[in-house]
Amino acid sequence: MSDRLSEEVGLFQSRFTALRAEVGKVLVGQDDMLQRLLLGLLAGGHVLLEGVPGLAKTLVVRTLADAMDGVFSRIQFTPDMLPGDVIGTQVFNPREGTYSVKKGPIFGNFVLADEINRAPAKVQSALLEAMQERQVTLGEHTFKLADPFLVLATQNPIEQEGTYPLPEAQLDRFMLKVKVGYPSKDDEVKILDRMAGTGSEPSASKVMTCVELLAARDVVRQIFVDDKVKRYAVELVNATRDPKAAGLPQLAPLLDNGASVRGSIALIKVAKAAALLGGRSYVSPHDVKSVAVDVLRHRILPSYEAEAQGKTADHLVAQILENVAVP
Fold first, then answer.
1. Most CB contacts within 10 A, which of 53, 102, 154, 253?
2. Residue 217 lies inside a defined structural domain of this protein
């Protein structure tokens, strides 16, 4: 069993290396963002990308969809949208006196929710309910969403004009929240060569199928996690809820709310995906530690005192990682 699992892990590691290389034909730099998106694909969780406009958030999602054979769908969120614009609606046929269902753009394998924080609360709720339940109800009919079904949402920082910050309970539906930064100067020169050069803009070819992705997820589920590693993940999450008990009394006034059990589950799922991308059939404590910030940053609520001190969620998670003993 162990030898067979190791072979399958090696096989899918090479397949995802090929996928990364294909996306790299279009995307320059932003390796960390791409790594996190691949973790989301493997772990079966939705990903939220946050960064200012113009950092290739939309480009990387579209390119990733191009490199796979699934159905790509894009929703451009605006303040005047209605829930039916996302999930679909019933259309009345006056001649026959019947209703027919018109499905919305949520019915796809890879759904790009562009600038999700520009949509009002009702529209955000409709999308996030579909993300959680993996189904949509229109009238008397319930429709299962595609498998794989992955929402890759982008948002601009909330201080940008015309945005609605996502409530914490809705943010919790995202397995990962990835902050996207500016490329290096060298990478930016390469971007100019590709996107503003004399040749045509590059595009990605299909190198992986949805069937392969689902098979890879089955392998991820079989990856071994030692009890000590599980305990380490739980200790990290518990430290966000009760810093004093974790030996971090200085963090107690800086945290209003900690991560839920969903945070512990996501931590292990994403760590398993990281193990596969690393070519291992077992999860190491480093796998947990390497993904903890992206898994936990949107699940904790810093206090006003933390904000007054300039401490962000990233700072608080980093302090927890430094102080919780690694097995």
1. 154
2. no
Residue 159 has pLDDT above 60, yes or no: no
HSE value, Cβ hemisphere, 13 Å, CA-based, for 15: 22
Other CB atoms closer than 10 Å to residue 242's CB: what's the count? Answer: 13
For residue 36, with 0-12 CB atoms within 10 Å meaning exposed, 13-18 middle and 19 or more buried, which class applies? Answer: buried
Report the pLDDT value the prediction gives residue 282, as an integer from 0 to 100. Answer: 93
Q: Specify whether the CB–CB gap between 69 and 148 falls below 8 A.
A: no
Tell me: the pLDDT tens digits for 51-70? Answer: 877 777 778 888 888 888 87
Sheet holding 150-155, edge to edge: 72-76, 110-114, 150-155, 47-50, 176-179
Phi, psi of 215 (to 5 degrees): -65, -40
Sign of the dihedral defined by the CA atoms of residues 256, 179, 121, 84, in that order: negative
Quick one: 51 and 172 in the same domain? Answer: yes
Work out the angle at residue 216's Cα, subtended by the Cα atoms of residues 212 and 217, and round it to the nearest 5 degrees. Answer: 120
In terms of domains, do 14 and 54 share one? Answer: yes
Question: Rounded distance, CA 143 to CA 71, Å?
Answer: 17
Q: For residue range 274-326, what is the model confidence (pLDDT) as tens digits?
A: 999 999 999 999 999 999 999 999 999 888 998 898 888 999 999 999 988 88
pLDDT at 1 over 60: no
Phi, psi of 214 (to 5 degrees): -65, -35
- Residue 272 near residue 12 (C-beta atoms within 8 A): no
Average pLDDT, the chain: 86
Q: Are residues 50 and 157 in the same domain?
A: yes
Q: Is the pLDDT of residue 162 over 80?
A: no
Task: Tell me phi and psi for residue 211, to 5 degrees.
Answer: -60, -40
Q: Are 52 and 178 within one domain?
A: yes
Q: Which domain holds residue 143?
A: 2-198+205-211
β-bridge pairing 135-138 and 110-114? unpaired
